[in-house]
Specification:
alpha+beta, Glucose Permease (Domain IIA), eight-stranded mixed beta sheet, two-stranded antiparallel ribbon, 5 helices
């Protein structure tokens, strides 16, 4: 644990102190324009809106209502949000606290929207995590910057995004990684991209927890720093 905390801190320091930032936009709609807005799906926000965010249709209706008001095409947010929307068995293990803290950053947009590689890397692993409430099609890239190794995870992609992939292939910044998947293939959610930075994958391939229990937050916050330190939205 001490070694991991030190390593995770080195990634945070790299993002904070050395100006490491994305080399390309993560979605083809562009996140440097006025066509994006922040979306809050936290527990406190969910209690104040007339939608059941655990249901994909109602969650999409809520997102659409925000887009209509703000004239946006992309919604973003979610890092370390405490959410009540995870109404799936894998988040409710018997005898364990409910996992409700979101460890990545979400980008809400239409299914089929292209996802771009924001920072050059190599393809570490990929997997279709098919069970309800999981990531669905998922890609993990490996990066090395200033002698620090780290990973980026992309979840809720389309099934086609996993075609013709090869572990170890180089993925240049700005290349198309895949597309946002629809509710049928993305684990059962309103269409969005889950983007997460990870220092240590702990031996996992094609998957890594995107949500943690409050009691484990200290560990995961160090291992999964704020993605916006890289994207700088």
């Amino acid at each position: 644990m001490l070694l991991l905390s030190y390593m995770a801190l080195s990634l945070s320091d790299l993002l904070h102190d050395h100006g490491l930032s994305a080399q390309a936009s993560i979605l083809d709609t562009g996140l440097v324009s006025n066509e994006h807005c922040q979306i809050d799906l936290s527990r406190s926000a969910a209690r104040c809106i007339p939608y059941d965010l655990s249901k994909p249709v109602e969650c999409q209706a809520y997102i659409d209502s925000i887009f209509q008001k703000s004239k946006a095409k992309v919604g973003y947010g979610g890092y370390l949000e405490d959410r009540i929307i995870y109404d799936f068995p894998q988040f409710h293990e018997e005898g364990e606290p409910i996992r409700s803290i979101h460890l990545g950053m979400d980008f809400w947009s239409d299914s089929g929207t292209n996802v771009y590689v924001p920072f050059a890397g190599v393809l570490h692993s990929f997997k279709d995590n098919k069970d309800p409430g999981n990531y669905g099609p998922t890609i993990i890239l490996a990066h090395t910057t200033q002698e620090t190794s780290w990973y980026s995870l992309y979840g809720h992609l389309s099934a086609d995004s996993l075609k013709n992939l090869k572990t170890g292939q180089y993925m240049p910044a700005g290349s198309v990684l895949g597309q946002i998947g629809d509710v049928i293939e993305n684990g059962g959610y309103a269409p969005h991209l889950h983007f997460q930075l990870i220092q240590d994958l702990q031996g996992m391939k094609g998957d890594y927890p995107g949500v943690c229990a409050p009691k484990d937050l200290d560990f995961y916050q160090k291992n999964c720093p704020d993605p916006n330190l890289l994207l700088q939205i």
